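Section: protein folds

Sequence with per-residue tokens
===
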Amino acid sequence: MRVSDAAEWRISRRVSTERSRIRFRDMAQSTHTVSGDFDLTMDELRVVAHYVVRHAADVLSVFEQAVPDDPRPRAAIDAAWAFINGANRTKLQRVTSLDAHRAARCAPSEAARLAARSAGDAASAAYLHPIAQAGQVGHILRASASAARIGEIEAGGDPAIGDALLERSRQRATPVLIDVLRRYPPTTSGSNRVARLMSTLDHSLRQAADRSPGHTV
């Protein structure tokens, strides 16, 4: 075996072992904890899913008015609520999330696409990964940023509406939600409006936590 092959094998083995460890801990429902770079309890995941689904439900009608015969986003929201209300997370959340994201790709407008994608995000929140990567923040905050963007679109592109809806999202964020968020690196502002709204919300939630009386470094 060449040195380069051996190095690649070792890296692949480590990645495979880590993924197996996460899957094993996840499958042990009695522990109610998923471990990776840090721990996430099922109760914490339900808090995240509840935050996401509230925003997704707010804008579901935007998709259903545009595509009234497509039940996929609503099915994803129903799957999210099943998990929030105490059911184990199963392939139901995975499958309905994927279906809702497929519906988003077929949506006839930006607003409808964002609404369907938010429904998919609500279902997939049950499977938020405990991996310290900024990309995971989207699974927590993208639906709220999308709802703000939909509000802007429906108001003729008025950014003040987006700002007001972000304030609503800040008010909805519980201490547990913010605690989970802070386990991940901050997201960076992207090139599109949803990414920028998400970055603004992410920054403001972390900043508020830093200012709270109980915060310790």
Observations:
- The chain has one domain: 36-211.
